[in-house]
Automatic annotation (TrEMBL):
<dbReference type="Pfam" id="PF13614">
    <property type="entry name" value="AAA_31"/>
</dbReference>
<dbReference type="InterPro" id="IPR025669">
    <property type="entry name" value="AAA_dom"/>
</dbReference>
<dbReference type="InterPro" id="IPR027417">
    <property type="entry name" value="P-loop_NTPase"/>
</dbReference>
<feature type="compositionally biased region" description="Basic and acidic residues">
    <location>
        <begin position="9"/>
        <end position="22"/>
    </location>
</feature>
<dbReference type="InterPro" id="IPR050678">
    <property type="entry name" value="DNA_Partitioning_ATPase"/>
</dbReference>
<comment type="function">
    <text>May play a role in septum formation.</text>
</comment>
<comment type="similarity">
    <text>Belongs to the ParA family.</text>
</comment>
<feature type="domain" description="AAA">
    <location>
        <begin position="36"/>
        <end position="212"/>
    </location>
</feature>
<feature type="region of interest" description="Disordered">
    <location>
        <begin position="1"/>
        <end position="23"/>
    </location>
</feature>
<protein>
    <submittedName>
        <fullName>ParA family protein</fullName>
    </submittedName>
</protein>
Length: 290
């Protein structure tokens, strides 16, 4: 017996069976800016925040968007992932937020990817959490530091560290939207309520325009019932906040980080690269990115 060929209709369903809309290639932009700032946020570690920051950024850059990645994690993984050595930095995002004389343009670096710049971080940033506590308007330091470069970019992606501390609150205060990468694992939803509560607090007290742009399932394995169950539960709880795009689990992502390249450059035709391009198109179609 031959297995029946998948029909067109079946192919155009997402992981929870919703009809998958067509996300067109984004139209070329006539000019650039002002940027929409998106914070990549989940206090759970290792869920794909940095991978999403780098690869969504690279995909948007391929579509002609001017993109700035802000590494807001002292581990510096986003910086390393686009080829910047965090140990050799004279200036990093730490200097930008702690020293009034340092401008974003002093710290921003171009990457090897056209249209993709990075504001790098290193371990120095770990001191900022404590040092910021005594600052005036300590929650809006990042927002203020980014303001002068908003006009140069279409999208600014902030890679948060796995915590809900003051640095993350700064990212949420600076942001227009939050993207929540969620690993398709058993305890994935644990902690999401607290994250949503934090986002709502920041919206009420500091940043009234803040929106949750979407929840992005990562490390999805369609062969396991388990992955499908996690995504179904997210859909039950969050409805259309669950994005259509899911990112599959593949070693190509760690491989690409070892090569210090986005997957879109390292393995341009790999399903992982295709998925991040779809995410870029989905966000543009939703109005969450230029
Ligand atoms: N879709 C995926 N499939 C397989 N591995 C992945 C995938 N996405 C990310 N990874 C790998 O999982 C690890 C954690 O990913 P990543 O660093 O993006 O998570 P994170 O949320 O930024 O972590 P942290 O909270 O420590 O900052 C990395 O080794 C990364 O290469
Ligand atoms: Mg990270």
């Amino acid at each position: 017996m031959f297995a029946p060929a998948a029909t067109e209709a079946e192919e155009r369903r997402d992981a929870v069976g919703r009809e998958l809309p067509h996300f067109p290639d984004p139209a070329p932009l006539a000019g650039h800016g002002p940027a929409r700032i998106i914070a990549m946020c989940n206090q759970k570690g290792g869920v794909g925040k940095t991978t999403t920051t780098i690869n969504l950024g690279a995909a948007l850059a391929e579509y002609g968007r001017r993109v700035l990645l802000v590494d807001f994690d002292p581990q510096g993984a986003a910086s390393v992932g686009v080829g910047v050595n965090p140990h050799e930095l004279e200036l990093s995002v730490y200097n930008l937020i702690m020293e009034r004389t340092v401008q974003a343009t002093d710290v921003i670096r171009e990457t090897t990817i056209e249209n993709l710049d990075v504001l790098p971080a290193n371990i120095d940033l770990s001191a900022a959490e404590v040092q910021l506590v005594g600052e005036v308007a300590r929650e809006s330091v990042l927002a203020r530091a980014l303001r002068p470069v908003l006009d140069r970019y279409d999208v600014i992606l902030v890679d948060c560290q796995p915590s809900l501390g003051l640095l993350t609150v700064n990212a949420l205060t600076a942001a227009h939207g939050v993207l929540i990468p969620l690993e398709c694992e058993f305890f994935a939803l644990r902690g999401v309520a607290l994250l949503v509560e934090t986002i709502e607090k920041v919206r009420d007290r500091l940043n009234p325009g803040l929106e949750i742009d979407g929840i992005l399932p990562t490390m999805y394995d369609s062969r396991t019932l388990h992955s499908r169950e996690v995504v179904a539960r997210v859909h039950e709880a969050f409805g259309s906040t669950l994005l259509h795009t899911v990112i599959g689990r593949t070693v190509k992502f760690p491989d690409a980080s070892v090569a210090a390249e986005p997957i879109t450059a390292y393995a341009p035709n790999h399903p992982g690269a295709v998925a991040y391009r779809q995410l870029a198109r989905e966000l543009v179609a939703r109005g969450d990115a230029a």
